[in-house]
Every structure is written in C-alpha cells, then in structure tokens.
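RECORD TYPE: inverse folding
INPUT: structure tokens
STRUCTURE:
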C-alpha cells in the first residue's frame, strides 16, 4: 500500500489515524443522510473521543460560515457593481441566506473533519497502516 497524504485524507473524509476508513456514511449532497460513523471500519479508531466531543465542531462550523458569508457579501458587491442602496439590501440578504443554506451540509461535514484531523491532540497518524 502506498502512503496516503494528510490532504487526501482530509478532503475525502478519511480517518485521521489510518487515513483509510471513512468518517461519514452517506454522500455530502444526496438523498441519503450523512452520518458520522461511530468508529473507523479499517483501524477501529473511535471518532467521538468523549461524550459531547463534536460540540466543538460548532465553533469550527461558525468560523467557516462567517468566512463564507463575508466572501459572498463581497462577491455580491462586485457582481452587482457596488450597489449599496436600500433596495440592494435584499439582494445581499438573499444571496447570503441561500449560500449559507446550500453550504450547510459542507460545513457540517468539514467542521467535524477539521476537528478530527487538526484539532484533536488524542488522535495521531499511525504509519503502521501504510506497510504491506
């Protein structure tokens, strides 16, 4: 087996310990509901390290959502030609609301992935799983 990079594991939602098993069941956008698996199917790493562990993902999701809203506001400003009158306020509200609604499954998934990969001191990558 070849070495799986951290970026590949992060983008594809793989386990931070072995980088092989899936963190989620279900697709990002689809009719099947995405759920966080209890543990990795490959290395048996438990994802919810302690009760309420994923409450911290709300803070990561909040930061992601704020960055997306600011970016959508600036994009709307430049696309609309810099309109800032009272009538354009509803354009900004609509674009930001719709964008936030469409990106909520993305934020749900990747806030948990970022929490597990970058903000969890208890989970370390085990290179043993890369050996044949």
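DESIGNED SEQUENCE:
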């Amino acid at each position: 087996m070849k070495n799986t990079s951290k970026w590949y594991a992060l983008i594809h939602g793989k386990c931070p310990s072995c980088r092989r098993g899936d963190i989620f069941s279900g697709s990002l956008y689809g009719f099947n509901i995405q759920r966080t698996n209890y543990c990795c199917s490959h290395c048996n790493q438990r994802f919810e390290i302690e009760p309420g562990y994923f409450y911290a993902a709300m803070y990561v999701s909040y930061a992601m959502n704020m960055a997306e809203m600011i970016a959508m506001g600036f994009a709307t400003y430049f696309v609309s030609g810099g309109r800032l009158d009272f009538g354009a306020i509803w354009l900004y509200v609509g674009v930001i609301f719709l964008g936030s609604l469409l990106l909520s499954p993305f934020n749900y998934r990747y806030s948990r992935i970022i929490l597990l990969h970058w903000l969890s001191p208890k989970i370390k990558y085990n290179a043993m799983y890369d050996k044949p």
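NOTES: The mean pLDDT is 87.
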